[in-house]
Design goal:
Elements lengths: L1 E7 L2 E7 L8 H6 L19 E12 L4 E11 L3 E9 L4 E3 L8 E5 L5 E9 L3 E12 L5 E12 L7 E3 L2 E3 L11
Antiparallel strand pairs: 1-2, 3-4, 4-8, 5-7, 5-9, 6-8, 9-10, 11-12
């Protein structure tokens, strides 16, 4: 069998076709005949979500034990969203200071009119506190979506080395000659 693969970004398509061989008979020759219909691999480009979610920590203040920070979550939509629900997932040891709700915060978003949600956070101990914001919403055409964004509050700890890029850490490579064998 012949094998052909085409990859674009993270979407791959795979086409398998039998190779023309006399032992396979007329069917194999018919597949390779000129003008025969063949399915060609195609790529798929997924559209972006109509709602943008960004979580960031501002005004971080570390104390001898613990500290405070302000979490800002900005929401923006390309299309009107009648109902959007925001939930925060806070790790153990991190709390909202002023009683701001962390679950079930509902709002409507109008196209191109960003909204800001803010919460004052406090921790009684040092550590790394991963925070996750999740939104769920339904569009006028009935499609439902869930999306999330995260941030990590570091109090009295250093963030890992490397550069944080789109949900993954990026580290500088080591030349092969520098590796000990």
């Amino acid at each position: 069998m012949g094998l052909a693969a085409a990859c674009v970004a993270t979407v791959c398509t795979l086409a398998i076709r039998p190779a023309a061989h006399p032992a396979l008979g007329p069917a194999a020759r018919q597949i390779d005949a000129p003008g025969a219909s063949r399915r060609k691999p195609h790529t798929t480009i997924e559209p972006t979500l109509p709602v943008a979610l960004e979580a960031r920590l501002v005004s971080v203040s570390a104390a001898a034990r613990g500290g405070t920070a302000r979490l800002e979550i900005s929401l923006a939509a390309d299309a009107d969203v009648e109902e959007l629900t925001l939930d925060l997932q806070l790790p153990e040891g991190l709390r909202v200071e002023d009683g701001t709700p962390t679950h079930g915060w509902r709002t409507a978003l109008r196209a191109h009119q960003p909204r800001l949600y803010a919460a004052a956070l406090a921790a009684d101990r040092n550590g790394a506190f991963p925070i996750r914001a999740e939104v769920s919403f339904r569009l006028a055409d009935g499609r439902s979506f869930r999306a999330g964004q995260g941030a990590t509050l570091h109090l009295g700890t250093r963030p890992p080395e490397g550069r944080f890029n789109a949900g993954a850490y990026e580290f500088r490579g080591v030349p092969l000659e520098d590796l000990q064998r």
